[in-house]
Amino acid sequence: MNTRHIFKLFNNSLIPQTICRRYSYKVVKRPDPKTLKMPTPGSAPSLMEIIREKIRLNGPITVAEYMHIVATNPTEGYYMKKDVIGEAGDFITSPEISQLFGEILGVWFYAETQKMGTGKPLQIVELGPGKGTLLLDILRVISRLGFEPADISLHLVEISSTMQTVQANKLCISHREVDIELPHNYEGETVSGIKVYWYNDLKKVPNKFSWYIAHEFFDVLPIHKFEKTENGWRELLIDLDGQGKLYYRISAEETKSVKLLIRPPLDSGDRTELEISARSLGIARQLAHRVDEHGGIALIADYGHEGEKGDTFRAFHKHKVVDPLENPGHCDLTADVDFSQLRVAAAKTSSSENFALVMGPVKQKDFLERCQAESRLKVLMDNAKSETDKEKIKMAYDMLVEPAKMGDRFKFMAFYPSSMVDLLNKFPPLGFSTPPKS
């Protein structure tokens, strides 16, 4: 018998019994998501400890990473632990200052929707709804303009369970958690029977005709900070010094963010500092696509600029500006919205599809006054019960429109379906154009 036949016989008879491996499987029991619980706030590491450990393990982090951790950590994140809006919090918003603000927005949405049709059935979608005050004021207005509870549903995009509870208690007569398989994670009903749904992502909101509201939403989204050096654009990073304190440093080489985000026209002109929020650009694009594809209007209101500023990252604590690198989780981190970037992300061009007609930005003072806010102010003052109440109403209004207060700093921008170009040329959008003199 030759050698080849010997090896063949050997392989066929001996190897299977001696060295052949068999596949084996071990059953692993996965945890039930419904039974998982987050650690209580007091038992979890502090945000400073989490950030320090992340830097020690992986090196310096971007400002965007820092903002994301501070805002959204499940137990220690700024928006996860407490209600931060109002006199007792770190900042106050326009809807909390005066009911007039939300009422004017309700009238604006209704008036602009009449150019399209009835707008029924209607989804009202708010991103970062705060305490729910703005929605409450809008609902009060449109209930008098022919909208019945069956015509409306509310869809709130909110990542904080704490703020979700605040909103539910304000808006709903009943509310509850829902099955984890559903796109929304919470639901309720108003006293009049309007259905209310909560989501942790805009992508989960149904694609239907909607009013989209983003009031003081974009300013808290994470930003990347860049500086122009003699070697080109470099990213500002956050690192640890020898004493364990956080400080800024410039990246030695181009980071991925530099390569991906700094493109014309964002880096045009003689700018030496840039703040770019990739998350903001993505959401602006989503809103534009939804409005153009499925109908509706999006309204953005925030403090910001049109590309002339470069360093606006800061923190607020008890209504005062503080160092954003100190006491993470105890301060509101924010940056002025660059409306020129939102326009680039959302505007329809001759070479693109499914993007919106972009109006604005215009100053809050101009927007409110063009929407006849002074007429509404007069009604509120005439109905005031006392001179003290009148004074409070007027002071609140001045806070909204005075240039040195909110009037100039806050801007409004709107997205319309691209199919409305001829209609808007004939009937200019309310608030974004000067009404003709009577």
Automatic annotation (TrEMBL):
Protein name: Protein arginine methyltransferase NDUFAF7
Pfam families: Methyltransf_28
Reactions that this protein is recorded to catalyse: L-arginyl-[protein] + 2 S-adenosyl-L-methionine = N(omega),N(omega)'-dimethyl-L-arginyl-[protein] + 2 S-adenosyl-L-homocysteine + 2 H(+)
PANTHER family: PROTEIN ARGININE METHYLTRANSFERASE NDUFAF7, MITOCHONDRIAL
Source lineage: Eukaryota, Metazoa, Ecdysozoa, Arthropoda, Hexapoda
Enzyme class: transferase
UniProt gene name: LOC113500135
Key word Mitochondrion present: yes
GO molecular function: protein-arginine omega-N symmetric methyltransferase activity
Family: Belongs to the NDUFAF7 family.
Keyword Manganese assigned: no
Biological role: Arginine methyltransferase involved in the assembly or stability of mitochondrial NADH:ubiquinone oxidoreductase complex (complex I).
